[in-house]
Specification:
Structural class: alpha+beta
Oligomer: single chain
Pfam family, one: PepSY_TM
Shape: elongated
Keywords: Membrane, Transmembrane, Transmembrane helix
Distance between the termini: 66 Å
Number of strands: 8
Strand order of the largest sheet: 1-2-3-4
InterPro entries: PepSY-ass_TM
Number of helices: 16
Strand content: 5-15%
Helix content: 55-70%
Largest sheet: 4 strands, antiparallel
Order of helices and strands: HHHHEEEEHHHHHHHEEEEHHHHH
Radius of gyration: 29 Å
C-alpha cells in the first residue's frame, strides 16, 4: 500500500500545477484569436495580390528573355570583338547619353546565348547601384560582330515594372507602406496562428487533414497544415522584405550605423603619384564627348578577368578625373563571393579590392536577404522555393476565408470577442511581447491602436444610443 501511495502522488501534482497554465492559456487565447482574425481581415486581400505579383517577379529573368529574346541573344560566331568597340557601337545609337556601366558577355558564352549590355544615362543622372535613373537605356551588342541587337528602356524593363507592381501596385512610392503594413500583419498572424494551433493540434498534420470530415473541419485542418508547414519560410520571406521598407527597414539602418556594419566600398581615388592629366584624358573618347577610351575599357576588363572575376562582371567608368574604374562581380551562386575592384583605366593596375570576407555579419545578412527576397540568390532553386511559399500563402488565405464563411452566423461578422475587453484581461507577458513588436513594426502599432480607438468609439456610440 505505501508503494501505491508513493506512486499515485506524482499523478495528482501535475494536475494542480497544470491548472494555472490552463487558465493562463484560456486568458491568452481570446487575445491571440482576435489579433489573428484582425490580421487576416486587414492584410489578406493585399497579401493575395502580393503573392501573385511575387510569383511573377520571381520568374522575371525568364519573362524578360521571352519578351526581349532578340536583344538578349547573340547570333554571330567567332571570337569577341574588343569591348571598347562594342561600347562604341552602343553609344552611337544614343550619342546624347553618357556611359554608366558595361556588363560584358562571359568569354566562354557560346554564340546565341548572351550579349554585352551597355547602360547609358543622361549627363545629369547620378550613379545609383540600386536604382537606374529615369530615361536610362541599356543597349545590347553582339560580342562577336559588335553590332547592336536591340535596347531596353530601364523604366519599361519587366524587372522594374514587376517590382513596382509588387511593392506599390504601380500607384507610386507613396503606396509602398500598404505592402509593409500587410507584411507586418502577416508576421503577427503567423505567430498567433502557431500559438493557437499548437496546444490542441500537435498531432500528425497530414493525418488530421485526411481524416477530417468535409466542410469546415477539413478547411480548418488545411489552414493549419499549410500554415505550420510554410511558417518558417514565410517568416524568412517577410523579414527579408521588411528590411528595406520605409519604416520597419529604418531599424536596420539604425543597427548598421550603431554597429558599424555598412557594406565596404572600394576606393576609386587614384594614388597621388598618378598623372591626373592622363587620368583625365581617359574620360574623353575620339568624338570629344564624355565617355571612355577604347584602351581603358579593354584594360579594365582584362584586369578583372585576370584577378579572378569569372562570373557576371559589371564595369563602371570613373565619373571624374583622378578616379579609377570599378569592376564588381555580381555573384549569387554558392558559395557567394562577390568581389569589387578599383582598376586604373590607363595602366590596368588594381588599386583597391574588397572581398566578401571583409563584409560585417549584418551587412552580409542584409545583402543575402535582399537577394533571397528577389529570387536572385542561388538561381532556380530559390525561384522554386519562393513560388512554393507564395502558393502556400494563397492557399492559407483561401482556406482561412472559407473557414470564416462556414463559421460565420447569418447576418453577423462572426468575429471573436472585442479586442479592447480581452486586452484589459490579458496576461502581462503577452502585452509586453506585443510592445516591442509594435515599436519594430510601426505601421502595425499604428493600425492596432487605431483599431482599438475605433472599437471603443463604436461601443460608446452604441451605448449612448440605448
Amino acid at each position: 500500500m505505501p508503494r501505491r501511495s508513493s506512486e499515485s502522488t506524482p499523478v495528482s501534482r501535475p494536475r494542480e500545477t497544470n491548472e494555472p497554465r490552463a487558465r493562463q492559456r484560456a486568458a491568452i487565447r481570446p487575445v491571440l484569436w482576435r489579433v489573428h482574425f484582425l490580421g487576416g481581415l486587414l492584410a489578406a486581400p493585399i497579401l493575395f495580390a502580393m503573392a501573385i505579383t511575387g510569383i511573377l517577379y520571381a520568374w522575371n529573368p525568364q519573362l524578360e528573355h521571352m519578351l526581349h529574346r532578340q536583344a538578349l541573344s547573340a547570333t554571330a560566331e567567332g571570337p569577341a570583338r574588343p569591348l571598347s568597340e562594342q561600347i562604341s557601337s552602343a553609344r552611337e545609337t544614343r550619342p546624347e547619353l553618357r556611359l554608366s556601366s558595361v556588363t560584358p558577355a562571359a568569354p566562354a558564352t557560346p554564340a546565341g546565348e548572351e550579349t554585352t549590355a551597355v547602360t547609358l544615362v543622361p549627363e545629369t543622372a547620378e550613379q545609383n547601384r540600386f536604382e537606374k535613373p529615369k530615361d536610362a537605356v541599356t543597349v545590347y551588342v553582339d560580342p562577336a560582330s559588335a553590332e547592336v541587337t536591340g535596347s531596353i528602356t530601364e523604366s519599361n524593363r519587366p524587372d522594374e515594372w514587376l517590382r513596382n507592381l509588387h511593392s506599390n501596385f504601380r500607384i507610386g512610392k507613396f503606396a509602398e507602406p500598404i505592402s509593409e503594413l500587410a507584411a507586418s500583419w502577416l508576421l503577427v498572424s503567423i505567430v498567433t496562428g502557431l500559438v493557437l494551433w499548437w496546444p490542441r493540434h500537435n498531432r500528425t498534420l497530414a493525418r488530421n487533414f485526411l481524416f477530417r470530415k468535409p466542410g469546415r473541419p477539413r478547411w480548418r485542418s488545411l489552414h493549419g497544415l499549410v500554415g505550420v508547414a510554410a511558417a518558417a519560410g514565410l517568416v524568412l520571406l517577410i523579414v527579408t522584405g521588411l528590411t528595406w521598407t520605409t519604416y520597419a527597414g529604418s531599424w536596420v539602418d539604425v543597427a548598421r550605423s550603431q554597429f558599424d556594419s555598412d557594406s565596404p566600398e572600394v576606393s576609386t581615388v587614384l594614388h597621388p603619384t598618378t598623372d591626373s592629366g592622363e587620368a583625365g584624358r581617359s574620360l574623353v573618347d575620339e568624338s570629344g564627348t564624355a565617355g571612355v577610351t577604347t584602351a581603358g575599357a579593354d584594360r579594365v576588363a582584362t584586369a578583372a578577368r585576370e584577378a579572378g572575376l569569372n562570373g557576371v562582371v559589371v564595369l563602371e567608368p570613373p565619373d571624374s578625373p583622378g578616379h579609377a574604374w570599378k569592376a564588381e562581380e555580381d555573384d549569387s551562386r554558392w558559395p557567394v563571393n562577390p568581389t569589387a575592384l578599383a582598376v586604373n583605366g590607363d595602366t590596368g593596375e588594381i588599386v583597391d579590392r574588397v572581398e566578401w570576407a571583409e563584409y560585417p555579419p549584418l551587412a552580409k545578412a542584409t545583402s543575402l536577404g535582399i537577394d533571397f527576397h528577389q529570387a536572385q540568390l542561388f538561381g532556380l532553386a530559390t525561384q522554386l522555393l519562393l513560388t512554393a511559399l507564395a502558393v502556400a500563402l494563397l492557399v492559407l488565405i483561401i482556406a482561412g476565408y472559407r473557414v470564416w464563411l462556414l463559421r460565420r452566423p447569418s447576418g453577423s461578422l462572426g468575429a471573436p470577442p472585442r479586442l479592447g475587453s480581452v486586452v484589459r484581461n490579458a496576461p502581462l507577458p503577452i502585452l509586453f511581447g506585443f510592445a516591442p513588436l509594435m515599436v519594430l513594426l510601426p505601421l502595425l502599432g499604428i493600425t492596432l491602436l487605431g483599431y482599438l480607438a475605433a472599437e471603443r468609439a463604436v461601443r460608446a456610440i452604441r451605448t449612448s444610443g440605448k
